[in-house]
Design a protein that fits this description.
The complex is a heterodimer of chains A (310) and B (249). With 310 residues, chain A is α/β, with parallel strands linked by helices. Helices cover 32% and strands 20% of the residues of chain A. Classes of the chains: A alpha/beta (310), B mainly beta (249).
Amino acid sequence: MDIRIDLPGLHLKNPIMPASGCFGFGKEFAQFYDLSDLGAVIIKAATGEKRFGNPTPRVAETSSGMLNAIGLQNPGVDSIIEIEIPFMKGYDVPIIANVAGSTVEEYVQVAEKISDHVDAIELNISCPNVKEGGVQFGTDSSLAEEVTRLVKEVSSVQVYVKLSPNVTDIVAMAKAVEAGGADGLSMVNTLTGMRIDPATRKPIIANGTGGLSGPAIKPVAIRMIHQVYQAVDLPIIGMGGIETTDDIIEYLLAGASAVAVGSANFKNPLICKELIDELPDALEKYGFSSLEEAIGGAHDEKTPSSLFRT
Amino acid sequence: MKVIEHKSIARDTYQLILKGDLIEEVDEPGKFVHIQINPEFFLRRPVSIADVDFHEQTLTLLYKVMGKGTDALTEKRVGDQLDVLGPGGRGFPVASLESKHALIIGGGIGVPPLYYLAKNLVERGIKVTSVLGFRSEADVFYEDEFRELGEVTVVTNDGSYGEKGLVTDVLPNLEPTIDTYFSCGPGVMLKAVTEHLPHLPGYISMEERMGCGIGACFACVVPTPDMDEKGYRRICCDGPVFKAEEVVL
């Protein structure tokens, strides 16, 4: 089965890509398989200047997932353009740059610089682990709309806005960034959480709070994508706890056109490659004749099946 | 890898021997493996390699029960399969060492990687003197194994076995011929050791909670001194072994 999919500005060989922050800039995973096999790569967040990030411990395991508070550690946008992106260009795979910042000006500056070197931007207005900026843009719909509009003005490539699940009304956020001119959505970032060590009586993660990822958050992400798919007319890259092809199909049915695999890469470095190989058979098993047929498939049956009519 | 042997060797401390072809890639002491305990645990657990037997195709891991994950690991029985990734990281650079007399300083569950190191050093004709620190008598392990390789001083915090105190308390009594040190243990111990031995070249092995264990997630970073341009090292792939002056403890 052909599992290619076209999204604004992106021609994907398949709908599977590693999620930002879980794949570095590709080098480490290139030891395990050919990165050209991926649908795309979403690289680690770029900020205006080099950032060291938060103190350690930065991760803690949870039931069916993990917390992280890395704190957007990265070498800064100039170094990413000069050193990291050229490595990725050695592979035949679209590069999506995750753009972060503490201020609107920083988002605009990073997006303007990096957009000439990549295939699309994932605008990160949803990092829960930095003191300034980040999720504040992702939880206030007027700020989200503004930063999306300003980044769109300077970006030479399409902009996918990565939404935070830490909001009461995800549809309002999606509509706001759609009004700001977003070309697509990336859903969802991590949920803010905490673990406390009974022995030390302190949070395990040095930052206190961290972002929850993994299968624990998948039902939340599926619900949000299902809601947003009906409310806005933008393609969605779905993510949150994907580990199997059934998970991917669930995301597609909810309304995602492509998916990103995050923390599962830590468990199994080959996971993306394995899922890509298995997806066609998995779709066939559930009776789909194409990838497109699955996208938004949970929304199609608006009338009750005849089987249930009396 | 397949479990060949699994037994308790001290309080909450277990010896696990695994067989598999992964061992072919263990080219120096100080590397670690990343173990998936079972599907209930989302993250792998990094465990340092305590010994390798190339003839038997086995590696020895020594671990301490620190939480639910390592507690579940104790349930593994001989014959069980374990999902092991590795060997990861950079170990002790034994091939390029210019040492005649090495000092090994281990603290608690930091002792294991130093055993395979000490064996390697002795094989290379380097004299080894070891200082092993534990909390209490019940925690002491591998004293005899180290004694086969050279002189050993055991220190316990409460004085219930060997010398009483901290590993750094016995450093002034050691022979002046020592020209290099190697240490692994809790962060506070490593800091104290490096501060006590500023005149000697030293290597330290660090541990930290890890995510991917291959360098991609930046969970296990340690800062470097100001003059270092990169500003950090990743314990899982730039380490876990560093030159003592390479990182800020």
